[in-house]
Write a structure and sequence with these properties.
Bound molecules: adenosine-5'-triphosphate, magnesium ion
Largest sheet: 8 strands, mixed
Strand content: 15-25%
CATH architecture of the largest domain: 3-Layer(aba) Sandwich
CATH class of the largest domain: Alpha Beta
Structural class: alpha/beta
Helix content: 25-40%
Length: 428
């Protein structure tokens, strides 16, 4: 529901004033906690910046990362010329008409594809409102605004049943055991969360032998097993208790990595936990064991992206061909699975060269990662990510590049220099 209530008589071209919450925040009571989104605001007046700062302190915003700057749209344009954009940008402006559209055009050129924009403006005019909505602006609030206005808008974008699901799921599977699929998935989760300052949940579904806890140096008492074995009870509150914080923007749903019980699951066993995670964070990375079961197939079928990691030998080639064909058949309306070639160039090991490997697959790999035992071994033994062990290493750069492509930011950066249409750039 919008906080902008239209007058019954639209011919009057006016928008009703934003409702004022009563003392004690009666209107806030109905607002659900806001998920782990990043929000940055660029204000022109002290009063709007104060309202946003106060909103950021509210308990319902405890999971969101909010930063409030001054300087309005021009400051935002400067800032994002060299920085990734957050999930939501709030800009205050007194500009109207073509001046406003021009400034927004500049902003759209530095915005990443999935970033939403909310404007706090001065015009109480339905024509302006409709124009901005049609150009991809998520909401236009008329100043002055209240905390309830701000939270209602964020709820409308990220929490209400009509809002699009926040999180994208990327599932990683190896074409053969030991290919490095898990290691790569952990490093990609790390790279997305640290490069883009956006929240990521890494779900390690290899119950018996999962390594995310070791690689991220965590030893949580609970994790994904509790979520899956009490699947019907999983909600955002339980999930929060099961997540262990690895970095400011990275949380792990760790596998128990113990052999106390058998881990047999129904086809839909992981659906609820992944669904709840997806509603709470912008990215969910799922590390799958190298198994072909009804539940791994179900996760692969429903993920937004699938990444297959292969090594350059004949068994891998056969398995990769089978996996890619099957995944394309299972996901006819989704992006094709992505391929990473890993552990290329093991000394003295005969291998299929990269071009011969990919020729029958009709796919270009996202990356070709060399065999680097010292680097991977040191990182693994120290409970570190590759970029923590050696940030300048080409493998760290490969992981950043893969993260950029999987989040859609790379493709966007190529497009954006040609475009000045804010409709094309906001709200995708
Ligand atoms: N490019 C590489 N160079 C050297 N060692 C690597 C490389 N990639 C991964 N490794 C190492 O290979 C081993 C297996 O990696 P990992 O556990 O990630 O594989 P996996 O595909 O998830 O295996 P599983 O089938 O058990 O799930 C780890 O010790 C890891 O550090
Ligand atoms: Mg693994």
């Amino acid at each position: 529901m919008s906080n902008l209530a239209f007058d019954q008589n639209e011919n009057m071209n006016t928008v009703a004033q934003n409702p004022i919450p009563t003392e004690g925040g009666e209107q806030l009571d109905d607002i659900r906690p806001i998920p782990r989104v990043t929000i940055q605001a660029f204000c022109e007046t002290e009063s709007i910046s104060r309202t946003l700062e106060m909103t950021a302190q509210d308990r319902r915003m405890a999971k969101a990362h909010v930063k409030v700057h001054m300087g309005g749209i021009p400051a935002a344009v400067d800032f994002y010329a060299n920085a990734p954009t957050p999930n939501l940008i709030v800009v205050e402006t007194k500009k109207t008409g073509s001046d406003l559209i021009n400034e927004l055009g500049h902003l759209s050129q530095v915005c990443d594809a999935e970033t939403k924009v909310v404007i706090v403006g001065v015009l109480n005019d339905i024509v302006t409102y409709r124009d901005l909505m049609s150009r991809g602006i998520s909401e236009y609030l008329v100043a002055p605004i209240t905390m309830a206005d701000v939270m209602t808008v964020i709820t409308k974008i990220y929490v209400s049943p009509e809002s699009a699901i926040l999180g994208r799921t990327v599932a990683f599977i190896g074409a053969k055991g030991g290919n490095g699929s898990s290691t790569i998935s952990h490093n990609i989760a790390w790279s997305i969360s640290s490069t883009y300052q956006t929240d990521v949940v890494l779900a390690d579904t290899d119950m018996a032998f999962g390594t995310a806890n070791i690689n991220l140096d965590q030893d949580p008492a609970q994790g994904i097993a509790e979520a899956v074995f009490s699947s019907d009870r999983v909600d955002d509150i339980l999930l929060d208790r099961l997540l262990s914080k690895c970095a400011e923007h990275l949380r792990l749903l760790a596998a128990p990595s113990t052999l106390d019980r058998a881990y047999d699951f129904e086809k839909k066993a992981f659906r609820q936990v992944i669904d709840v995670a997806q509603r709470g964070v912008p990215y969910v990375i799922v590390d799958l064991p190298q198994q072909w079961t009804s539940w791994t197939m179900d996760i692969l079928a429903s993920a937004d992206e699938v990444v297959v990691t292969a090594c350059p030998d004949l068994t891998n080639l056969r398995n990769t061909k089978n996996l890619l064909d099957k995944l394309i058949q299972m996901r006819p309306n989704d992006a094709k699975p992505k391929l990473i070639l890993n552990q290329v160039g093991v000394p003295k090991r005969p291998e299929i060269n990269v071009s011969d490997f990919i020729a029958p697959l009709d796919i270009q790999p996202l990356a070709v990662i060399p065999f680097e035992p010292a680097l991977f071994g040191t990182a693994a033994n120290n409970g570190q990510m590759i970029s923590e062990a050696d940030q300048k290493h080409a493998v760290s750069e490969s992981f950043d590049k893969i993260a950029q492509i999987l989040t859609g930011k790379a493709e966007f950066k190529q497009e954006k220099s040609n475009s000045f249409d804010i409709r094309a750039l906001f709200k995708r």
